[in-house]
Amino acid sequence: MNQKYLTKSRFKQALECPNKLYFTSKKEYVNQTLEDSFLMALAQGGFQVEALARLHYPYGCFVDTEHFEYNKAKNITRDQLQKNSVSIYEAAMEYDGLFIRTDILSKNANRVKLIEVKAKSFDPSDEYLFLGKRGGIKSGWKPYLFDLAFQKYVAQKAYPEFTFEAHLLMADKTKEAMVRGLNQMFRVPKDGNPRTEVVPNITSLDDIGGSVLSEVNVDDLINDIIANKHPYFDNLTFEESIRLFNNAYQNDGYLNWPTQFGSCKHCEFKATEAQEKSGLKSGFKYCFEKQHQWQPLDFKKPNAFEIWNFRGKNLVEENRLLMEELVEEDINIKPAAGRLSASERQWIQVEKARENDGTIYVLTEELQQEIEGWKFPLHFIDFETSTVALPFTKGRSPYEQVAFQFSHHQLNEDGSITHKSEYINNTPGEFPNFEFARELKKALSKDNGTIFRFAAHENTIVNAIISQLKDSSEPDTKELIEFLKSISTATKDNVDQWDGERTMVDLNKVVKDYYYNPLTKGSNSIKAILTAILNTSNFLQEKYSQAIGDISLGSSNFELDHIWLTKTSEKVINPYEMLPPLFEGWSTNELDNTLSELEGIADGGAALTAYAKLQYVDMEPNEREEITHALLKYCELDTLAMVMVYEHFKYDLIN
Questions:
Q1: Torsion angle of alpha carbons 21, 23, 25, 27, nearest 10°?
Q2: φ, ψ for residue 400 (rounded to 5)?
Q3: 477-481, Cβ contacts within 8 angstroms, sequence gap of 24 or more
């Protein structure tokens, strides 16, 4: 029987919630995020960062073993550590049931550098990079630093004859790529495993004029964590946490750790109804049955985890998590003039869920007044973008915004709709932003009609491109900046402030300010809104249950016989589920939902992951075209969904 080990990933999981140790590795319990680390690394170029990091310590030994070959990996590592000087990639060490695999070990005599590679950016001049002004570890860094502390603890226990020193190796915001196409110098073979088969097209850092990664010595901070100067749990020391977790995992014990609102809300051990019917179990249900005495019917009732943007009192401690148990004081309602405040929306959601009221709530007069200020023709735009650790072109820094696609629908005063224009760049290694801006200018400069975006993203991207243009030598820089400023508003952190005369209207804000549909269950994503309005609107159901050719709906990527609204058992199928998959094994909707829970990735995760695949994976031209065409369909639906939101407002609510 294989030895059970508390690995660093399980330790990190236990820090989020110690109860997770009971569910992890049990096949009968659903784990919705088993693929998250892979998807995140692909989306942000993490595999390429690891390959570049190894060039900082070249000619190292890669401990290439299967994940369950613990003894083999430990033995290879032990043999390598007998050398006076050596670098090891994926070194494996174990102590008393604790097991780690490190990104890079660099040994010189008895001193060993323990180097954790992260596809995360930092500014070395930030004096409060890891610790806040009050001396506590910043929440965003806490998981990484405790992960590294666990590695050092195990390494030092396993090899007490050596002195280990902890380092982070990350993307440095102050550095620039010295060559064009840096991100293309680390390719993944077709059907290859990005974890182990990234192929560098260079042999040393000299080939690229230096790295955009920098190493940070965090040993003092790691030592402080191990010495419990920065406890994760107030009632446990660092070493006590390890012993508790290890004992529970080895003995298959459920720790019955008190449930917490944040960790429970995003628990990965929640099973869907379909998964439960197939025989899989829910860890979330296990906890709530034990700790809150929830019965099967309670899990079907609306609960506080569904409340949009809820940051109120600790309802978990009070064991009042069902919406039927909530009172107005739990929300602390603060009204806003002329619109719905966040707290008012929350209470409306609670009341409607509690009373099983599926009717829409709308501030009709205020919404009508808003709409009357819009000017035809109406333009609806959506951007698909990416930020990657390794820059595309010379002179660019890590994690600069890359705008690779947009879609643009136009709605005319007579009600006619056309998919007016679109842009996509699928060429590996090209920096598309300036051509993107030119195409956007061409699309939107023909009239003075109102332009719509959905959420803040598009405005942020326009600001980023303006900044990039200022540092460029493009011949039309002045004209492009003038246009981009005319359709945007300066972000708060921008020294140069402006508010364009034609600045984009945020349709997401319009929804939040005047409208609530109970079918969204509090979500304000375009996908949730679209599904809700298609299930609600008689106008949309009548119109979009017809082929697009029969309703004169122009399309760039769909055949004239395509029908957007399809029902099964009186419920409308989410149109995003009908799109071709952007990533093997995942529907577009599944991929977006999974990635939206990850740090740094919001709505649109499916598109940026597909774009990352176009950038890094060697593939045949027909496969590249297939992904490209799927991306075009995906983005076209995003802007058509915005059109449908407008039509729902116009023809269902205010006419």
A1: 180
A2: -75, 150
A3: 479/441, 480/434, 480/437, 480/438, 480/441
Strands 567-568 and 571-572, sheet pairing: antiparallel
Residue linked to tokens 């148990």:
325
Residue 217 DSSP symbol: E
* The model's pTM: 0.90
What is d(CA 606, CA 194) in angstroms, rounded to the nearest whole number? Answer: 18
pLDDT of residue 598: 43
Helix boundaries (H) for 203-314:
219-226, 238-250, 261-265, 273-277, 283-291
Count, residues in the chain: 655
* Tens digit of each residue's pLDDT (9 = 90 or more) over 398-437: 988 999 999 999 999 999 999 999 999 998 888 999 999 9
Q: Are 588 and 577 in contact (CB under 8 A)?
A: yes
Residue 597: is its pLDDT beyond 50? no
Query: H helices within 395-455, ranges in order?
Result: 433-444
* Per-residue pLDDT tens digits for 113-122: 999 999 889 9
Mean pLDDT of 53-58: 95
For the chain, percent of residues with pLDDT exceeding 70: 92
CA angle at 197 for the pair 628 and 87, rounded to the nearest 5°: 140
For the chain, the maximum distance between any two Cα atoms, rounded to a whole number of angstroms, is: 81
328-345 residue pLDDT tens: 989 989 999 999 999 999
Bridge partners, 115 (sequence order): 104, 167
Cα R_g (the chain), whole angstroms: 27
- Torsion 481-486-489-490 (CA) sign: positive
